[in-house]
Structure formats: C-alpha cells, structure tokens
Amino acid sequence: MTGVPASAAGGSGARRAGPRGPSGAAQEPAERTTPGGAVERGATEGGAAGRGGKIAAAAVNQASVWNVANLLTMLRLLLVPAFVALMLGNGGYDPAWRSFAWAAFAVAMITDLFDGHLARTYNLVTDFGKIADPIADKAIMGAALICLSALDDLPWWVTAVILGRELGITVLRFVVIRYGVIPASRGGKLKTLTQGVAVGMYVLALTGPLATLRFWVMAAAVVLTVVTGLDYVKQAIVLRRRGIAERRAALKESEG
Fold first, then answer.
1. Is 32 helix (H, G, I), strand (E, B) or coil?
2. How far, in Å, CA of 33 to CA of 227, rounded?
3. What is the pTM of this model?
4. What is the mean pLDDT of residues 166-189?
5. 190 vs 120, residue with greater confidence
6. SS3 content of the chain, % helix, strand, coil (to 5)
7. Rg of the Cα trace of the chain?
8. What is the distance between the alpha carbons of residues 107 and 66, in angstroms, rounded to a whole number?
9. In the predicted structure, residue 105 carries a pLDDT above the cut 90
10. 31 pairs with which residues across the strands?
11. pLDDT at 83
12. What pLDDT does residue 185 have?
C-alpha cells in the first residue's frame, strides 16, 4: 500500500483540530485558511472563554445589591424615621426643627429622582431595587402627609386621597402584571413632582403669600393625583382585556 503523509490524510480536519494546549484540550490555531483562500484569525485556548468570563463577571458586579442606585434607596428608607423625629421635634411647630425636617424630605426626594435613573442607565436594576424603591417612595411621602395631618396642618381627607391612590395603583399594578406592565406616564411624573413640592412647602413653617401659594400647589397635586389615578385604572382595564384576548387567540390557534 502506498503511504500517504499524515498532513495530506488529515486535510482540513487536521487544521480544525489544531495543536493541544497544556491542559490537553484542543487549542484553536492562531489563524486558518478558509475554503475561499482567506486567512481567518482564531482565538487561542481559553481566549474567548476568558473574555466571556470577564463580561459575565462585570454583569454580576453591575447587578450587585450593593450598587449606587440601591444605596440611594436605602438612604431614603433610613431618612423616614429621621424625618419623623425632626418633624415632631419640640412639639412639631418649631420653625427650626421643621427646617431640618424639610432638608431630610428634600434629600429623600432628590435621591428618588436619581436612583431610578442610575439603575436604568448603568444596568443596575435588581430585584431588591424593584421592591425597595416604591416602598421608599411611599414611606417618605406617607410619613410626611400623616405628620402634617396629625399636626392639623393638612386636612386628613387630602392625606387619605393621596395615600389611597398610591396604594391602590400599586396593588393594581401587581394584579395586572400577568398581562403586562403599566408604564409611568408624564402625568404621573408631574403628579409626583407636584406632590413633592406641595408637601415640602407644607413642611416648612410658611406664612403670608407663600402659605397661600402652597394651598394652591397642594390643590393641583390632589387634582393630578385623582386624574392620573383614573388614567392608570383605564390603562389596567385595557391591558387586562388585551391580555385575555391574546391568550384566547393563542389557545384557539394551538387547538386548531
């Protein structure tokens, strides 16, 4: 039998196998020739895996609970008892204590603006953040409203309307989440901003024209609270109907 050189017998298959690395695993050659004659550079042993590992590790680090966005949310939660203590300090009517309470409330509102933006922009969204962020929002606003009503600075029905709307929409989101997510609207964002400004003005011991102005700002906040709440209810109904219709259509298609 005529002997055939191993390099010829192996052909392209020998090139695909390539030399073996120190671990015994096949190592991709630095370059190989494609059927068209072009030279294609390959990765050395563990090169692609190493890069993939670094990317995966970076993703894990970004999604860590201890990221900037979650730390801001935790700070906002810690500010709630501090705010209540300052708000009720020295009987609850001392302008100096109210000023400190306003500072704590303002910091909480500012962190509310930044933590969500940071989480979405830098891929820092975590399960903890999804749960803790809305809780922190409702906690600081609820604490402020309840303190103001307890001090007779704000009617209880205003507190009931705002908190009832916030809690109701939160429950509604969870009810329809199987059909989809209700996105935050511009009206909802304006409502949040107006509520923050109005409550902040009530926390301060304002008198004269500023006291009159805060009444109208709070009135606007209440109107926006009700209107946007009704809009969310409408969106939830439409989302639920659409989801049910899509499920029925998919069921009929699978049966057919």
1. strand
2. 67
3. 0.69
4. 84
5. 190
6. 75, 5, 25
7. 30
8. 20
9. yes
10. 41
11. 96
12. 78
